[in-house]
Amino acid sequence: MFPSKPQLIPTCCAVTPSPSPLLPQDPDKNSLQLSPERTRDRRKVVRIAWEKLLRWSRSWRSRAKTDVLERTKKVVVLGGGSFGTAMAAHIANRKDQMEVSILVRDPAVCRKYFPDHKLPENVIATSDARTALLRADYCLHAVPVQFSTSFLKEIAEHVDPGLPFISLSKGLELNTLRMMSQIIPQALKNPRQPFIALSGPSFALELMNKLPTAMVVASKDRKLAGAVQQLLSCSHLRISTSRDVTGVEIAGALKNVLAIAAGIVEGMNLGNNSMAALVAQGCSEIRWLATKMGAKPATITGLSGTGDIMLTCFVNLSRNKTVGVRLGSGEKLEDILGSMNQVAEGVSTAGAVIALAQKYNVKMPVLTAVAQIMDSELTPKKAVLELMSLPQVIQSP
Ligand SMILES: NC(=O)c1ccc[n+]([C@@H]2O[C@H](COP(=O)([O-])OP(=O)(O)OC[C@H]3O[C@@H](n4cnc5c(N)ncnc54)[C@H](O)[C@@H]3O)[C@@H](O)[C@H]2O)c1
Ligand SMILES: O=P(O)(O)OC[C@H](O)CO
């Protein structure tokens, strides 16, 4: 049936339906106007699908376990920067009787990150490692990657060998190319220290404001990942589990380098076409390297990969993107870093990425260009010219 009302097609491009194979054969398929009967049927199908989804969700919720939260009495957070503080507040809000200790160099420091937010009463900041770690059930590690080894070596004597470490840090150690799953057990001299990576698109401020967020916990130990999922998930934080620790960690580290590139494109006013092309190319480079390192492609295209890339590359709350924007608008790297009081992990991770790319024999033009800019070997303008002059790609069919 043709619609009875005229369609909203501009006259300059209006077409008369014809039997041409290039044009729609069934006008109803492409029309916004359906007969009342078909509208009713269509709505019924949608309603049934939605109700089915709700029933499935309710049945899962009714079986959801809460024993981990009930059992957990104390959580320690290492590093009282913005994310450590936000996660400490999140966990403390899960249960009033839980003690959440933040280990900081200066106990006054964690109040500075969110001056407009009152921290829950059960969050305690201390600079005493022994007290902070004593009888903790879980440990959240939120110290920037480059300082993690020295920090952990200093506190190692107070760490229980069975204490699960949930790493929030996203980056690669510059000289060793190690990820947090390697840094933590090696610094603590305990290869069996239980390890979980927590990653995904999550700005500390939005978590602090209890805005809906989704993240991934990755661990080789399925049971442990499930326990951490229980500990963290609530009505505004969805947590999925994964066994692909390499994929989750490498994507979380490399998206910070790509975000610097995205910032440069914005700072140079290169336009939306450039931005989309750059981020798409960056996603491919991350996938090429990550899969050679053993990551699953689905992890890279999922929440902690593409999800976090979208957040960090497209949103100006990102510290890494901000570094790029300022570089692209002509500021010097040392001036930018000197004026920041928070970490942009992509700056040091960029150097490590290139060594990894060489080790795994992967070409990464965009991420290599960022590393060259970080080393002041290349200007953003020259980088754009060089990237645009790379050989034209022949796509395989
Ligand atoms: N902020 C976010 O939105 C966010 C979200 C997800 C993941 N992360 C990751 O979390 C990690 C921490 O980031 P952040 O945002 O909390 O950083 P931040 O810059 O806000 O704070 C860093 C903290 O580390 C401490 N620190 C610095 N050097 C130290 C040292 N040598 N020894 C001990 N402590 C030291 C600082 O005092 C500060 O408390 C990073 O790897 C980051 O990529 C951050
Ligand atoms: O502010 P950034 O660039 O460190 O990004 C923060 C988080 O990693 C976003 O998921």
TrEMBL record:
One of its GO terms (molecular function) is NAD binding. The active site is at K255. Its EC number is 1.1.1.8. It is found in: Plastid, Chloroplast. It is an enzyme of class 1 (oxidoreductase). Substrate binds at K170, R319, N320. Gene3D superfamilies: N-(1-d-carboxylethyl)-l-norvaline Dehydrogenase, domain 2 (1.10.1040.10), NAD(P)-binding Rossmann-like Domain (3.40.50.720). Residues 244-384 form the Glycerol-3-phosphate dehydrogenase NAD-dependent C-terminal domain. Residues 18-38 are annotated as: Disordered. It holds the Pfam family NAD_Gly3P_dh_C. Pathway: Membrane lipid metabolism; glycerophospholipid metabolism; Lipid metabolism; Phospholipid metabolism. Signal peptide: none annotated. GO terms for biological process: carbohydrate metabolic process; glycerol-3-phosphate catabolic process; phospholipid biosynthetic process. It catalyses: sn-glycerol 3-phosphate + NAD(+) = dihydroxyacetone phosphate + NADH + H(+). Residues 74-224 form the Glycerol-3-phosphate dehydrogenase NAD-dependent N-terminal domain. GO terms for cellular component: chloroplast; cytosol. Coiled coil: none annotated. Belongs to the NAD-dependent glycerol-3-phosphate dehydrogenase family. This is Glycerol-3-phosphate dehydrogenase [NAD(+)]. It comes from Hibiscus syriacus.
